[in-house]
Amino acid sequence: MVYADYDLTFPREYSLQVVEAFRKHRLNFEPRVLPCGHYTTGETPYKYLDGWYLGWFVYRAYKALRKEKAAGLGAPSFVSNEAETVSR
Fold this sequence. Notes:
Radius of gyration: 20 Å
Number of helices: 3
Order of helices and strands: EHEHH
Helix content: 55-70%
Number of strands: 2
Distance between the termini: 49 Å
Shape: flat
Low-confidence stretches: 78-88
C-alpha cells in the first residue's frame, strides 16, 4: 500500500485509518509512504520511488508464484484429473 504524506485529495489521517484497518484484519501488506502530495506523486523523484515500490511488489509476487509452481502447489487439482480422464 502506497500513500502520500501530504495528499490533500486523500488526507493522511484516512490513509492511516486504512493502514490500521488492514492491521486489525491481519491482512498481509506493506505500507509505503511517499513524502509528497497527491499530484506530485507523478513528479520526479517521487514517481521513481512509487515505481520502485510497485515494481518490487510485483517482482516478489511473481517470484513467490514461480516458487509455488515449482513446488507443485500452483497447479489446480482439476488439471491432474483431466489428464487422467484423457489418458483413459
